[in-house]
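Quick check before the chapter quiz. The format below is the same one you will see on the exam, so make sure you can read both the input and the output lines.
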Amino acid sequence: MPAAQRSPGRVVAKLMFEFWRNLLEAGGDIGDGPRRVRADHERLWRTQLKSAFPGGRLEAASQSAQFTRSWTLGVVMNVHALRNRAAHHEPLVNGFPLPGEQRRLSADQGHQACLQLARLLDRDLAAWLVTNSQMARHLPRDPARRHTPSAATAAAVIAGPLSVAAPVDLTIA
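Here is the expected output.
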């Protein structure tokens, strides 16, 4: 990266979703030989990372859960799984699998996970998404009776006015 483009904000903006998700993992040994060190992500969580989720305590309490690194990781993993499906234009008709688990989430559950993550990060963001997203209107309650949008279309609808392409009305008469 050229020196003129090396600003902290630019570096952070270029980090992938998986990088941030991995910070919520337990950590472990990294490096080789004499440079091998222990990455203690629990300590990172307690001292710094949990402050990135100002709505976390309230959101966890609303589900009778403890606001912990592992609980937050579970929320982020659900959104990450949906994001990967959408990025690869995979259909969401039958939901999407959670990697390493023997269960699937429906498109509606994925949408709710996105809203939950937004509430963890910023209550105003969550409220804005609820007000401005048309996704809930397009998510069927009964896939047998209504058309289910593909992941690519769902991603475009989630983006709404921020996307280059306008959202498409997926209602089938």
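If your answer matched, good. The first helix runs from residue 8 to 14.
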